Amino acid sequence: MLGGLELTPLRAYAHQVPHYYFQSFGSAVSHPDTDEFATFAQDTIRVTDHFDLSLGVRYDLQTFSTKYLKTNPLWPESGKVPFNSRNFAPRVGFAYSLGNQRPLVARIGYGLFYPRIPQIYNSTIETQNGLTPNSIFLNQTNYYNEQVFPQYPYSLVTCPLLGDSCAVPANLMQFAQTNISAFAHNFRSPEVHQASVSLEREIANRVVGEISYSFVHGQNLIRARDVNLPPPTSVLYPIYDSSGLNLLGYGSVQSFATWQFATSLTCPYPPCINPLARPIPQLGSIDVFESEASSVYHGATISIHREMTHGLYFRIGYTYAHAMDDGQDALVAGRPATVQNSYAPNSERANSVTDQRNRFVFSWMYEPHALNGGQGWLGKLTKGWKNSGVTAGSGKPVDAAVAGDANQDGNYGNDRLPGVSRSSFVDPDYSSTDMRLARRLYSRNGWKFEFTVESFNLFNRLNNRFQLTSDGAVSNAAIQLRH
């Protein structure tokens, strides 16, 4: 409600009346300096004429600079970086061939990998140490927020265009939030276990068929969780039919804020939602980077490929796969935590955003022989040409996101439709034909020139990608809004 007017998402959009306003402050400069050291040893042993064994080990060490990091007394774990010195990763694999003429080759391999920690995490804990206010979040329906709510599309505070920092003005301090990002005290390096099994055989001259299975298991993956939240409570909300008149029943949602049912200056039209009462009231969100997420991938592939012969190479492959995870936050540090309920982070386990059940790939490269052996005008015209692929696949998972802060945890980017789990919907299937045509020319002084023409999605196939929100399904490919 705004001034007695019910603001539906569509009506708010039509009248240019935003419900929420968010602006970040602080330094635009950070120093996420890191040093990385690695060493690797491997040896392949030919046990018999048909059996090869490979053994290897890799050691990784990543250190971060602490020069610009500061600890906040309200959260002693802030301003600190992890140091993991035991990242030894073994590798083992073997290949066995059965038969002499066009043998059947079996390969099995396993390896442990330690991914690097992206430097954006070090940058975030440097700039979000909670020592100065770093954001303003306004709700248009709050009486006090409404007094300073900027008119769309202007900003509340105008920051220097080329400045390296921007601070919250003194007159707006009451609306400012002081957020912290920090590593957990027991943070461990992410690790990925990979195993594969394949059978390969030449089924015709220079044509090889292969069947393979891959297993990937991620452990200690990075996930952010806001630990400065009170325990949530279940709140009932009415559910109406499409007319908005007939009550169908009541649903339940976990809310981190309490309700007010009496009329007051801040609640002219009860019931209203009270401000979030955080356990550490001097701070806003405390997003702790924990190594608690995990992932599992299973994939089976069947393929046929032809080695380059007479100027022709091709590969046809089909993969059926399934990937699940706990909603790890890799490469999104600096944003609010994506866990919807910090008291139940394991409820985030669902299909991964990279999950794609079916994928078909047909790629080729063709270098036709020049006519007349490349001599004469006809030979020169047809010499040095080559062209090359088609990719098709099923859709990827989509979240049914809700715009704003439905569960009132102070986070505008982690809410879903009530009763809907993460990655509950799937994008439409897609197909793309990418073509490349190139010709190489040689000059008399030894220079080589290559002219290339490329086309992506040659046949202009419409590939929709959707984002489900409380306003409907938004296509970010065709910019369509559907209800």
Number of individual domains: 4
In helices, the fraction of residues equals under 10%
Under CATH, the topology of the largest domain can be stated as Maltoporin, Chain A
CATH arch. level architecture of the largest domain: Beta Barrel
How far is it from the N-terminal to the C-terminal residue, by CA? 22 Å
Instruction: Give the oligomeric state of the chains in this entry, treating copies of one chain as homo and distinct chains as hetero.
Output: single chain
Average pLDDT, rounded to a whole number, is 84
Query: Which residues form runs of ≥5 with pLDDT under 50?
Result: 474-483
Number of strands: 30
Approximately how much beta-strand content do the residues carry?
Answer: 35-45%
User: CATH H level of the largest domain: which superfamily?
Assistant: TonB-dependent receptor, beta-barrel domain
- What is the overall shape? globular
Radius of gyration: 29 Å
Tell me the major beta sheet.
13 strands, mixed
Explain what this protein looks like in three dimensions:
There is one protein chain. With about 475 residues, this protein is mainly beta. The chain has four domains: about 1-30 and about 135-175, no CATH class; about 30-130 and about 180-230 and about 275-355, Maltoporin, Chain A (Beta Barrel); about 360-395 and about 435-460, no CATH class; about 395-430 and about 465-483, no CATH class. Helix content is about 5%, strand content about 45%. It contains four helices and 30 strands. The strands form eight sheets. Strands 3, 4, 5, 6, 10, 11, 12, 17, 18, 19, 20, 22 and 25 form a 13-stranded mixed sheet that branches. A three-stranded antiparallel sheet has the order 1-7-9, with no helix packed on it. Strands 21-26-27 form a three-stranded antiparallel sheet, with no helix packed on it. A hairpin with a 2-residue loop joins strand 17 and strand 18 (about 310-325). The longest helix is centred in the first third of the chain and has 9 residues, at about 120-125. The radius of gyration is 29 Å and the shape is globular. Mean pLDDT is about 85; it is low at about 475-483.
